[in-house]
Amino acid sequence: MTLLVRYVLLLSALLFSATALSQDISGNYTLDVVQNPGAQDCVWSGNLNLAQSGGNPGSFSGSANVNIVSGPCPNIGGAVSGTINGTTLSIGVAVGGLGNATFTGNVVGGGNLSGTWSGLGVTGTWLASPIVAPPPAPVATAVPVLPLWGLLLLPLFIVGLAARMGFKRRV
Prior knowledge:
Radius of gyration: 30 Å
Low-confidence stretches: 3-21
Helix content: 10-25%
Mean pLDDT: 79
Strand order of the largest sheet: 1-2-3-4-5-6-7-8
Structural class: alpha+beta
Number of strands: 8
Shape: elongated
Strand content: 35-45%
């Protein structure tokens, strides 16, 4: 390989690793949590809000409000805190005043977070998807519209106006 090709490959690898390490997970997410089949087969759904501080590796805090969709399990919610290192993260979440669950996982495609969780003697999987704000509504602006016939008559109007004001064409 030529020296230039090696330099480009090295630079690309450095940029890619810097991008992976600068992962910021601050934001609002929809959170879906599923208990592994067995005990009570509970399913939860709700929101997760995270604010990362200290860069990456670093820590984050936030809140979760996740309600039971099916099964006889308690809601999950309250303050959350955790750490991120590259694309790997660990989150502690309160479970209905009964204790804590630990969510471990990774940042995956599209800014999604996913992994496994355990707590209170049960385990499962989870997926957090970023909530994307809708684009702002377009601002209506009044633009004067001239119909096609108006465009055709415009030069005649300008010539007539010039003649009326006494402008003469120079030869």
